[in-house]
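Reviewers of the previous submission asked for a worked example of the structure-prediction workflow described in the proposal, so we include one complete record here. The input consisted solely of the amino acid sequence. No template or homolog information was supplied to the procedure at any stage.
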Amino acid sequence: MKNALLSLMLIALGPVVVEGQQVSPEYIEEIQNLMLTEAVVEALEVAEQDTDWAVAQLIELTEIPAPPFMEEARGIRFAELLLEFGADSVWTDEEGNVIGLRRGRVGERSIGFGGHLDTVFPEGTDVSVRQVGDTLFAPGVSDDTRGLVVLLSALRALEAASLETDDDILFIGVVGEEGLGDLRGMKYLYREGGLRPDVWIEVDGGGLTRIVSMGLGSVRYRVTFSGPGGHSWGAFGTANPAHALSRAVRYFQDVADSLTRTGPRTSYNVGRMGGGTSVNSVPFEAWMEVDMRSESPESLSEIELAFLEAMDRGVEEENQLLRMGERLKVTKDKIGDRPSGELDPSTPVIQRALAATSQFAPWGTLARSSTDSNIPIALGVPAVTIGRGGIGGNGHAPAEFWVNRDAHLAVQRALVLLVAEAKLARVIS
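From that input alone, the workflow returned the following structure tokens.
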């Protein structure tokens, strides 16, 4: 940790720029003073002592499958643990988000502290944990089951230290973060009339130094070209869905390549394709799933429009070759829509995240990613995503692993940020 002399130097010098990030000395002073408070010191000690418990909890939760749209079993257990470790009330909303309220002394604001319940792995995946030394191997063990454990560890530490805050804290296991889940849990929380926490702190991603304060937007489509199909010889001359799909991809790439060469970083990808019944049959349908991303909402809209136009052009040109049978149709189903956006680095929760990180690791860096924080960021709600600690690897792969290497530091950093944002009130008598 940095010492008091450094704090005084920073105050004297004014705003500090480290690795491109400006950190106001008032937030560094706030964090350092907070970490000298008796109740916070006790909570940090509990977090460090809880390491073995945290590993055992990680194994238990990892071995409860949570495929996309099937998070209920893990959510039930997570709710039980929130109650066991001190939440004042726990409930599951209509979308499936599991919410544990720890009441603040004032309760005028609420701080959302979340991790996502779901993993990318489909139903039937073997999620048994294999442990080798300090390394755990299992699908989903890092992303984001470890994030859920950080939430539980923070709650346990707050309760053990009888540490009270002015603001309410909402410990939330969020559904639908991965893939086709399309941030459905967060969209529900921040819908009009929803719970809408005033500040959002997400635990996702690895390490200690990366702080996500910018949302990477994306749109995803499943496009299906359909027609009558038939025998490759006998029905020759009918419009071919696979040919239309091929044309559409070519037309899209011709435009998309130029759109992504300059300007805000933007990407596109045809990730999945399928259709047809046999090599000697004209397919009755051909489909593909496409992902487009951009730092800029305007650039994302531009490439999306180019994509839709290319799909129409592909089917229209194939229909012009029609010699017999019915015309092809194209269906463009939007299966993903994640907004982009970014917050001013001077936003208090970002400043506090940078200041808190500086006490446990090299100075933090602000980053852009696609996480649950996309939703509040796009709405202008203060939000950050911080790492879950330890060392993770092979994310989204069956060989995913997580190493218990100084993992308590992530819990301690999260604790300090959480208490700073929710405002330390007093020690419960």
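The chain has two domains: 4-216+340-427, 219-338. We consider this example representative of the routine output the project will generate in years two and three.
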